[in-house]
Design a protein that fits this description.
The complex is a heterodimer of chains A (305) and B (267). Chain A is mostly helical. Chain A is 71% helix and 0% strand. The longest helix of chain A has 33 residues. The chains are: A mainly alpha (305), B mainly alpha (267).
Chain lengths: 305, 267
């Protein structure tokens, strides 16, 4: 054991078993090991957050004002928040539902193993394939001159755009967002579905339970904490999405991220402090969601016991 | 009775999977066909030829790759020692580190970029005007992926025994980290690097708001003028994501902690 201990800062020498048995003198040195991380996180994550908070209460000259925060309650801002929240909730619920069903079919159904492997691998790709390329993929598919739009018109005589459908509308955006929401759900919920024992379903079936009863009384209660967590993740991923919406709608739909983009980039509308106020609002919405999640999570896991 | 019901379950499952496959595959095939559509002259590969000849394509691809490499370096240099240290000496603060590294999942890029632009406005132009501020932000976005990957890798090996064995043989702390721990973390490091690569190569929000010509910003720009070119680039972007994911699978096959974290992306 008498090794090169002189080279080390005092207290850093790890004498065998004791894991955190740092001497009084060494305790301070041990913290140095994580100092760079805390410094970086403070500078580039917490300090920007604080800057938003402060920036939202200042005008262009640095004077303190409530004007910008108050402007959040104006019609335009409220519309944007309402549309953003609606879009996030709808895509989180639909994406969560479809993702759950697909993952359940591939994992708990008696299907060959490769189905599951393919599904999780593809989900890994699809959840990361988002933003501008995703928007253009859908424009090429069911956009105004898209391949499927043409096919429906030429072969089946069905005019998709004659029905009033628009890809850059709210429901168009829902369809596109599901392309990353469903795979995200599959990835997040797969471990939880693994935890559903096959015997539980067999027992339920043998006792004469219908599929609905099995889900209502067995599967859902067990999955509930994971479902809530996944739902929050999906909500957040849609709520913060900017690239997909930007490329798809060119700002025609009032969404908070698009509004922030408009007032932050240097064009005529540029008003960075209003951008700060909008961003602060987003953080608040996400914060409320997380709090709600923490409360529901506690309820759900209590119910499980 | 039960068997009949079971068969119905199976059929229902297969039906769901078939529908899902259609929803996920059709847009890709349609994009391929769209990108091969005749433009004004000739047929077929026109869109690809135009893109390949555009200097903006090569430049933005190279630029984004450079950003990705820097981001990988910064996030690994920062998080590897941190994760190792926390596992070895400070297991008590693991929840704190976990919370901080998961925060970028909660704070979306659009908010982070506003904060960076607002908070660092007073800094000299070599930071504020250069792409360093973008890389620094990308490293934050990569935190959840990189840390979770490293954390899983460290959990899978017995770092206490390894560290003590190395130290009792006379290794210094830095030698332990570089010659003992890191080689054992190869899979986790690789998958963290590939995830970060996929993240940065496709990132649009921060690049656009800071007005840098990244690959995704270039795709968006092309899309405003030539739809077929944008389709071709979208497929290429999809291929890059695939390569990164296959890299992770490959890394996972080689050791611990590879598949820990592959959730997400910025949308």
């Amino acid at each position: 054991m008498k090794t090169s201990e002189e080279d080390l800062p005092p207290g850093v020498v790890s004498t065998p078993p004791p894991r955190s048995s740092t001497s009084g003198r060494g305790r301070r040195w041990v913290w140095l090991g994580v100092a760079p991380f805390f410094l970086y996180t403070f500078l580039f994550l917490l300090y920007p957050a604080i800057s938003i908070l402060l920036g939202a209460f200042q005008d262009e000259n640095g004077n303190i004002t409530l004007k910008l925060v108050r402007s959040l309650s104006e019609q335009g801002s409220l519309d944007a928040y309402w549309t953003s929240i609606k879009l996030s909730v709808i895509t989180a619920v639909l994406g969560g539902l479809f993702g759950l069903l697909i993952a359940h079919a591939a994992i708990a159904g008696r299907l060959p193993r490769w189905v599951r492997t393919t599904l999780t691998t593809f989900s890994g790709v699809a959840a990361n394939f988002a933003g501008v390329p995703l928007a253009f993929a859908f424009i090429s598919t069911i956009g105004f001159t898209g391949v499927i739009t043409k096919f429906l018109n030429d072969s089946l005589g069905f005019d998709l755009y004659g029905t009033g459908f628009k890809l850059y509308s709210f429901w168009g955006l829902v369809i596109v967002y599901l392309y990353f929401q469903i795979p995200l759900m599959v990835l997040v919920i797969a471990p939880a579905i693994d935890g559903l024992r096959r015997e539980w379903r067999e027992a339920a079936e043998n006792l004469g339970a219908t599929a609905t009863q099995y889900w209502r009384h067995v599967a859902l209660p067990v999955l509930m904490p994971s479902l809530l967590g996944a739902g929050i993740l999906l909500f957040g991923s849609a709520f913060g999405a900017y690239a997909t919406a930007y490329a798809l709608t060119s700002g025609r739909l009032p969404l908070v991220p698009l509004l922030i983009g408009q007032v932050t980039t240097g064009n005529v509308l540029s008003d960075p402090h209003y951008g700060n106020a909008l961003a602060l609002g987003m953080v608040l919405v996400l914060g409320v969601t997380m709090t709600l999640y923490a409360i529901l999570q506690r309820k759900a896991s209590r119910w499980q016991r | 009775m039960a068997a009949l019901r079971r068969r119905r379950w199976l059929t229902l499952g297969v039906l769901w999977l078939a529908l899902a496959t259609a929803y996920f595959v059709v847009p890709l095939l349609a994009t391929l066909q769209f990108s091969l559509q005749p433009s004004r002259t000739g047929y077929g590969l026109d869109a690809y030829r135009t893109i390949l000849q555009d200097p903006g394509f090569r430049e933005s691809l190279y630029f984004s790759f450079k950003l990705a490499v820097f981001t990988v370096i910064i996030s690994l240099v920062l998080l590897v020692p941190t994760a190792y240290w926390v596992h070895l000496k400070l297991p008590r603060i693991r929840p704190v580190i976990e919370f901080l590294t998961i925060l970028p999942f909660v704070i979306p890029p659009i908010v982070l970029v506003v904060g960076l632009l607002q908070g660092f406005r007073w800094t000299p132009t070599w930071f504020y005007g250069g792409y360093l501020i973008l890389v620094v932000g990308y490293a934050v976005l990569a935190f959840p992926y990189v840390y979770r990957s490293l954390d899983a890798g460290l959990r899978a090996i017995d770092i206490h025994t390894l560290s003590e064995a190395a130290q009792s043989l006379g290794a210094r702390q830095s030698t332990v980290l570089f010659r003992v721990i890191l080689p054992n973390l190869r899979a986790a490091l690789l998958s963290a690097a590939f995830l970060t690569l996929a993240l940065v190569m496709g990132e649009f929000t921060m690049g656009q708001l800071m007005q840098f010509p990244t690959f995704a910003v270039y795709i968006g720009y092309v899309g405003q003028t030539q739809a077929t070119g944008a389709a071709a680039l979208s497929l290429l972007s999809f291929a890059i994501t695939w390569v990164a994911m296959l890299g992770i699978l490959f890394a996972a096959g080689r050791g611990a902690g590879g598949r820990a974290a592959q959730v997400g992306g910025t949308h």
